[in-house]
Write a structure and sequence with these properties.
Blueprint (H helix, E strand, L loop, with lengths): L2 H25 L9 H17 L7 H15 L2 H18 L7 H18 L8 H17 L4 H17 L1 H4 L1 H6 L4 H18 L29 E8 L5 H11 E9 L2 E8 L2 H11 L1 E9 H17 L3 E7 L2 H9 L3 E4 L8 H11 L3 E5 L3 H16 L3 E4 L5 H9 L7 H13 L2 E7 L4 E3 L2 E3 L4 E5 L2 E6 L2 H12 L6 E6 L7 H12 L4 E6 L7 E5 L1
């Protein structure tokens, strides 16, 4: 275990949980169908990752692990987020005792983690994340007894966890009624899958494009039987010996009690009707802070209303202006509706307005993908807003920026959050292109003749030359920053043979740390589009 490896693993967990966020939210029917488990677990792991990335470089592993689990504890959200923070706190505490990770330490880490999670929950229920954690521990123990190696031991734990998750509907009527597996257990399986891939070197850290989240199940009004009205969460500074009495007091007030932590800092989660009494119990034990209260009725009603609107008007739709059959197919695979254009047939404001109407959606996100289309999209959007549609135009100026925005699109998010995330992804994507001069002229890079290759950087001509490969390499070098992680090459209909091979070879020699993805776009007039994320 090294600092770099652990930080990469933490980032991989954040990426994978962000990718699975909407799916896990949709599974969330226990203990309350408030559709936030995926979001809560994702935010919990973001907090842990931010804690270690803010720490000093070259921190010893034990200190790094403590920083991480403390970050998880302080940032834990919701029932499952709190339990996962305890699972990792306990397992990493066990692993920190050894200089190397061996089969027996892996097995013991799983056992200690499962025991700690069960102990943290006031009234453990089977068919939940606890069941999945216990199955992982049993799978690891059996692998050790069979003489398996470290990676095989962890793989056995992950396999056992997946099998236990699949059986959770058999253990809980509420899951069976809704036709889903446990959301918290699913989140744990995502983390275990990421760790297994990291151990074998198969995880690439990239967000998968084209993945559609699971739709939210529509639950009847009688689905939720009684229960406390509020979720109360707070952090607590308290002596360890005060916690047993706190657990006893809170357990008598409600249910879904989880208290995790140690060394004077605790995260408290409980469902109650008397919010004041829950907070007063914390004050009696120590000093509560960051108190958060959620009224389930309001949350569930808002979610039901959102789901109803999604069903009535086809939910949220992304509409993108694209050119090239390959690019259009990429956008459609990623879930977008496309307005296709060519050199001879451009998109008009009227066509955009009609597309917005035909979508019959409650919410629309527009990717113009060209500077000339932004104002047209805004004009068409005004009429759609007047008709009651919520619509946002993201100022993507290139189709590769639109692809980057679509890669982080999450229909399970709040509309504004989704728009912000997509706008940020688009805005932080550097873009360039290769085209061919059709006339004699003067550019910002100098004079050009018909047939010259023109390198485009952020919409302006920046390179002129006779060698397509060299011009493309010059463009690439101008937009690949020190923090670049991925380069996307979209090949046009008139691309020269070996163009992308030359660029990939150049990147292998100059930036071996950068991943490269190549797509056949089929666009006219531009042999190549380039994006750097």
């Amino acid at each position: 275990m090294t600092t770099e490896a652990f930080t990469n693993w933490s980032h991989a967990c954040v990426v994978a949980l962000g990718d699975a966020r909407a799916e896990i939210d949709a599974l969330n029917v226990f203990p309350v169908p408030d559709s936030d488990t995926g979001t809560n677990v994702y935010l919990t792991f973001v907090a842990g990752h931010e804690a270690i990335t803010a720490a000093e470089a070259d921190v010893p592993i034990p200190a790094l692990l403590k920083t991480y689990v403390d970050g998880l504890l302080v940032g834990a959200k919701g029932n499952s987020g709190v339990i996962l923070s305890q699972l990792l706190r306990a397992s990493f505490g066990e692993l920190a005792k050894t200089a190397t990770i061996e089969p027996r330490s892996v097995s013991e880490g799983f056992r200690v983690a499962a025991d700690a999670a069960y102990a943290a929950v006031g009234r453990p229920v089977e068919g939940t994340i606890l069941t999945v954690a216990r199955a992982a521990a049993i799978g690891a123990a059996e692998a050790v007894e069979a003489g398996k190696r470290t990676r095989e031991t962890f793989a056995a734990a992950a396999i056992a966890a997946r099998a236990a998750l699949a059986k959770t509907p058999e253990q809980m009527d509420r899951l069976k009624q809704a036709g889903v597996v446990d959301a918290g257990g699913r989140a744990l399986v995502v983390v275990l899958d990421v760790t297994e891939r990291a151990l074998t070197g198969r995880f690439d850290g990239a967000v998968r494009r084209g993945r559609a989240p699971m739709p939210m199940p529509v639950l009847g009004e009688d689905f939720v039987e009684g229960g406390p009205a509020y979720e109360v969460m707070y952090l607590l500074n308290a002596a360890d010996e005060a916690i047993e009495e706190l657990r006893h007091t809170l357990d008598a007030l409600g249910d879904s009690l989880v208290v995790v932590g140690g060394d004077g800092l605790w995260n408290v989660h409980v469902h109650v009707d008397d919010v004041g009494a829950a907070v007063e119990a914390g004050m009696a034990a120590g000093k509560p802070f960051r108190v958060a209260v959620t009224h389930f009725a309001d949350q569930i009603a808002a979610q039901r209303g959102h789901v109803a609107a999604m069903h009535d008007k086809a939910g949220r739709v992304v509409i993108a202006a694209v050119t090239g059959q390959g690019l259009a197919a990429l956008y459609r695979e990623a879930g977008a509706q496309t307005l296709e254009f060519t050199l001879s047939h451009q998109v008009t404001t009227a066509q955009m307005a009609q597309a917005f109407t035909d979508a019959h959606a409650a919410e629309i996100i527009v990717l113009p993908n060209a500077a000339r289309f932004v104002a047209m999209a805004e004009a068409a959007a005004r009429d759609a807003r007047a008709a009651g549609t919520r619509i946002a135009v993201i100022p993507a100026l290139a189709q590769v920026q639109g692809l980057a925005a679509l890669a982080v699109h999450d229909p399970g998010k709040d509309f504004d959050d989704d728009v912000v995330a997509m706008s940020s992804a688009s805005g932080h994507t550097q873009h360039g292109a290769l085209t061919i001069a059709t006339n004699q002229g003067m550019t910002m890079a100098g004079a050009c003749e018909p047939g010259d290759f023109l390198g485009v950087v952020a919409g302006d001509f920046a390179v002129v030359g006779q060698d397509a490969k060299q011009v493309a390499i010059d463009v690439l070098d101008r937009i690949v920053s020190p923090s670049a992680e991925m380069v996307t090459l979209v090949v046009g209909a008139d691309a020269h043979d070996g163009l992308t091979d030359a660029l990939e070879q150049h990147l292998r020699e100059s930036r071996p740390d950068v991943d490269t993805v190549v797509y056949a776009g089929g666009q006219e007039n531009y042999p190549l589009f380039i994006a750097v994320e």
